[in-house]
Amino acid sequence: MMTFAEFQELVNLSMEALCRDFFRENPDRARVKKEATVVRNLVKILDATLMISNQKGFQAMSVRDLSRETGLSMGALYSYISGKEELLAIIRAQGYRIVVRILTGAIAEGSDPHEKLRQAIQTHLYLSEAMRAWFYFSYMETKNLSKEEQKKSIQMELFTEKLFIDILSAGCRAGRFRPMNVELTAAAIKALLQDWYLKPWKHQRRKVTIEEYARFVTGLVEAYILPSPAAASP
Amino acid sequence: MMTFAEFQELVNLSMEALCRDFFRENPDRARVKKEATVVRNLVKILDATLMISNQKGFQAMSVRDLSRETGLSMGALYSYISGKEELLAIIRAQGYRIVVRILTGAIAEGSDPHEKLRQAIQTHLYLSEAMRAWFYFSYMETKNLSKEEQKKSIQMELFTEKLFIDILSAGCRAGRFRPMNVELTAAAIKALLQDWYLKPWKHQRRKVTIEEYARFVTGLVEAYILPSPAAASP
DNA sequence: GTCTATACATAGATAGAC
DNA sequence: GTCTATCTATGTATAGAC
């Protein structure tokens, strides 16, 4: 299996790459035109937004906070973003694209259900670690968004959960996994994976590495879904 | 095992009982003196706070929102609370007291580790369902609190987790459970229990009852911690 | 006890100089 | 491209009539 360091190197998830993509797709969005400048400042703005929001909440973050943290004046800030609301849309949309791309790519690789499941658990964990601030933000702020944005958030949760549901279902049909409620099981897997980035303080304090955590979750899930040795032999 | 309806009837967790307790302990806190009035309005205020905050976040809830929702004028509101901040303190403190009381009480009842574990899982779930708004609020707003209040929140998470750690440890020592990383296992149980109130929409949509969910979590955890039949027999 | 009216601070956003 | 100064809306909180 891949280590987290290898994963992080393999997929370039830097905020810079993300902002460059965004600028090239929406070149006329900002008042400023030079790519290098836009990317440089957009990186600052988005990084600062995630950091401040994850400390005290997006709503509590004022644009003045953002100005102080980025070193840009109020006026400069508003030449890159149309307002606070747009920040939410950019962050969410760019994040989702990456998540969909990486997760579906990783799962396609696996051959049998068992291997696919391990791969999905590990990739989901690694991805959330590489984009921890984004995942945390996305989870915590969802309920404060507009109804429409909330819907997209829920769709994303259900999309990633569906990846697990499909793997589990395929495994059941193939007789590799024992019969089970695949929806509940997939929901449980999601909850375990989310706990990693929702409570970083807990795992840091106990010095649990992400590789250990991946093995633990895999073991816990497998103990539940694999046919027990006793039942399988006769 | 007890059903949720029975649990809810057994322990009276109404907001009214909670507010009455609070008033009797802090009789000189509010400007208003008549118990019936204070309790009646405090119930309105706290209920409204939880409802609005859980929809758009505590920070985004204005005192004017609170005034509209409770039917009390701004002036009247401020004769029950000293400010928005105090609301947080009241809600958190009263909630914690109840959680500690109910959980420790329920776990003391169980005899052996296995029974205690089931009891703890079920009670934690039922309690979070009976006080769903409070649990959701507590989870979502923690990161937005003052450093000191955050510490109390984390202590609470660790306290309830410790209940599970102790049960698991006792079970391991008694040879009833197989050897395991009890801290990781307890953390996983917490994550599964929290998922119930963090994503009510998911379970509602799938028509999963809380009794079913309790059985599912118990089954999942037991599959992991019980010595496997194959390993146990020789 | 409850209300209305209001003070005062801070928020988001923009105009126009440089 | 970036800054400072400023507008307007909204927020928390209080004073004082009833």
Keywords, please?
mainly alpha; homodimer; 0% strand; elongated; DNA-binding
The domain count of chain A comes to 1
* Rg calc of chain A: 20 Å
The CATH topology annotation of chain A reads as Tetracycline Repressor, domain 2
- Uncertain runs of chain A are none
Q: What's the CATH class of chain A, please? A: Mainly Alpha
β-strand number of chain A: 0
Oligomer: homodimer
Termini separation of chain A (Å)? 33 Å
Shape of chain A: elongated
Largest sheet of chain A: none
Structural write-up:
The structure is a homodimer of 234-residue chains. Chain A is mostly helical and 234 residues long. The first copy, chain A, has a single domain (4-224), classed as Tetracycline Repressor, domain 2 (Orthogonal Bundle), CATH 1.10.357. Helices cover 75% and strands 0% of the residues of chain A. Chain A contains 13 helices and no strands. In chain A, helix 6 (84-109) packs parallel to helix 9. The first copy, chain A, is elongated and about 65 Å long. The model of chain A has no long low-confidence stretch (mean pLDDT 95). At the A-B interface, helix 3, helix 10, helix 11 and helix 12 of A face helix 3, helix 10, helix 11, helix 12 and helix 13 of B. The structure holds a DNA duplex (18 and 18 nucleotides).
